[in-house]
Amino acid sequence: MVENGKRAAASQKENRRSKNEKLFCEMCESYFEQVKHNESIFNGWDADVIIEDIKIAVLWNGKWHYESIGGHSVEQVQNRDKIKQHEIEKCGYRIYVIKDMGKFDPTFVKNEFERFIRCISSYGRTLLS
């Protein structure tokens, strides 16, 4: 019974990932060597994309992080985001947040990936060592 529950939870988590987030993750997997996604390695909290090579946790924040959709509490979501970010930083990772307010758009994802690469390049060698 427990195993079935774990499989169902993993499936639900995977289904909640946007196509944009999945594409960004695939780009990261092509560029970096050690990439994880949606693993709860930060004191029980997860990140959407975790790049072990450079210790960066990417948070792919969709519309519901900023606007009420279906009656959920945006304030509660944002409070949870702050807690998550604190726990990620406590584990020694930098946080990179991508705000995605739209539908599937490969051009948007490509532009965000290029912006991300430029950003981490500007951190210099200290980030990469």
What can you tell me about this protein's structure?
By secondary structure, the chain is of the alpha+beta class. Helices cover 50% and strands 13% of the residues. It is built from five helices and four strands, in the order ααβββαβαα. Strand 3 (56-61), helix 3 (74-90) and strand 4 form a beta-alpha-beta unit. Helix 2 (19-31) packs across helix 4 (106-122). The protein is globular, with a radius of gyration of 15 Å. The protein starts with a helix and ends with a helix. Residues 4-12 and 125-129 have low confidence and may be disordered.
Q: Total helix count?
A: 5
Strand content: 5-15%
Order of helices and strands: HHEEEHEHH
Low-confidence stretches: 4-12, 125-129
Tally of DSSP β-strands: 4
Instruction: Look at the structure and give the CATH class.
Output: Alpha Beta
State the end-to-end distance. Answer: 44 Å
Structural class per helix/strand content? alpha+beta
Number of domains: 1
Q: What is the oligomeric state here?
A: single chain
Topology:
Elements: H1 2-15, H2 19-31, E1 35-36, E2 49-51, E3 56-61, H3 74-90, E4 94-99, H4 106-122, H5 125-128
Helix pairs in contact: 2-4
Give the key terms.
disordered C terminus, four-stranded mixed sheet, alpha+beta, 5 helices, globular, 50% helix, Endonuclease, Chain A, 129 residues
Give a short overview.
The protein has 129 residues and is α+β, with helices and mostly antiparallel strands.
